[in-house]
Amino acid sequence: MSGPLRGMLIADFSRILAGPYATMLLADLGADVVKVEAPGGDDTRDWRPPVRDGVSTYYLAVNRNKWSVVLDLADADDLVLAHRLADRADVLIQNFRPGALRRFALDHDTLTARNPALVYASISGFGTAAGADLPGYDLMVQAAAGLMSLTGDADGPPYKAGVAVLDVIAGLHTAIGILAALHHRGRTGRGQHVTVDLLSSALSGLVNHAAAYVSGGVTPQRTGNAHPSIVPYEPLPTADGELVVIAGNDAQFRTLCRVLGVPELADDARFRRNTDRTAHRDALRPLLVAALARRGSAEWFRELRAAGVPCSPINSVAEGVALAQRLGLDPVVTVGGVPGVRHPIGLSASPPRYDLPPPDLDEHGTELRAWLAGE
Questions:
Q1: 241: left (phi over 0), alpha (psi -120 to 50) or beta
Q2: Which end of the chain has less Cβ packing within 10 Å, N or C?
Q3: Residues paired with residue 332 on neighbouring β-strands, in sequence order
Q4: In this prediction, what percent of the chain has a pLDDT beyond 70?
Q5: Which keywords, in A-to-Z order, does the entry hold (predicted)?
């Protein structure tokens, strides 16, 4: 295989989203990923609709460039093969309930006693101490971490994010941790235990909101589509729809006011600086809305974009993909007839590769069992 991680073998005992997303990113970068599935397969194979050719698109989203083998850990012969895979692997990743793999001798301590160079990555929902018995589903963690308390209208109920964003963040953290451990191994010859939990990933991913509480002693609240610290930074109505309008600094606000035909707002003492605008947001918003009401979203988008003011229509996913295509970002790659989203990282000397479509259950089982058996 090509790519910067060529020659790296990853034994992937994870399932659903965070782990498979991490291993797909690494597979795209050249690692050989063996996806170990229970006889029933990864849960996401049954998470449908939608489907493509009868296969769950949820599963397809995070499993390209992998080899699938079914191993029943309760079967003695299959367990032997699982151990052989772990002994050969550079990386093992799993998201079983903390401690669950100990009875199969597939835990970190047992495996690294035999294979001290192994990088062993564990993903949990709430860590391995008092939260070890809690299942790690994204929605649970969105609720537990406070993300839902920040999502929705100020006077409405809390909402979940529209995507399993914390699973994705945890998957990214896992990939970063694995790469850091591999770099450490390159210097020392020894692997280590990479641990990631969704709750910690969530709190890290809350960034300024978490800092508002941890550093400032302020518990942030829902503000709908508005931003607690930047004004304007929200969708605003125009003559025919809504347009996201952002003034990330005072110069952008001045340009926004000029394009909208209300330059006097930039000199108003209530709105001159961002801190002023934040304090007087309720007075500023209707003035901007009145100016935007003179034209439609598409026309304002063209004029504001040309002037360098950050703005965007509110697209559907289809329109978002189409925008990326128009911008030359080539968002879609097709592997074995299965379209998917391109790897987001560009590398000039060793770019991501797209060799294998998401595998059918046990698609490579015969070859992998023979390889593990030494035949």
A1: left
A2: C
A3: 341
A4: 99
A5: Transferase
CATH number of this structure's domain 9-207+331-373: 3.40.50.10540
**CA proximity to 30, closest of 13, 8, 12:** 8
Give 159-199 pLDDT, tens digit per residue.
Answer: 999 999 999 999 999 999 999 999 999 999 999 999 999 99
Closest by CA position to 231, among listed 266, 280, 293, 168 = 280
| Catalytic pick among 78, 107, 167, 197 | 167
Do residues 90 and 119 make contact, with C-beta atoms less than 8 angstroms apart? Answer: yes
pLDDT of residue 75: 98
Sign of the dihedral defined by the CA atoms of residues 210, 213, 215, 216, in that order: positive
**Looking at residue 20, what is its pLDDT?**
98
Domain boundaries, the chain: 9-207+331-373, 233-322
Centre a 10 Å sphere on the Cβ of residue 349 and count the other Cβ atoms it contains: 5
Q: What is the DSSP string of 147-206?
A: TGGGSS-TTS-----SS-HHHHHHHHHHHHHHHHHHHHHHHHS---EEEEEHHHHHHHHT
pLDDT, tens only, 29-64? 999 999 999 999 999 999 999 999 999 999 999 999
Q: Is 335 helix (H, G, I), strand (E, B) or coil?
A: strand
Helix, strand, coil abundance in the chain, percent, nearest 5 = 40, 15, 45
Model's pTM, two decimal places?
0.95
Q: Is 163 exposed, middle or buried (0-12, 13-18, 19+ CB in 10 A)?
A: exposed
φ and ψ at residue 147, rounded to 5 degrees:
-60, -40
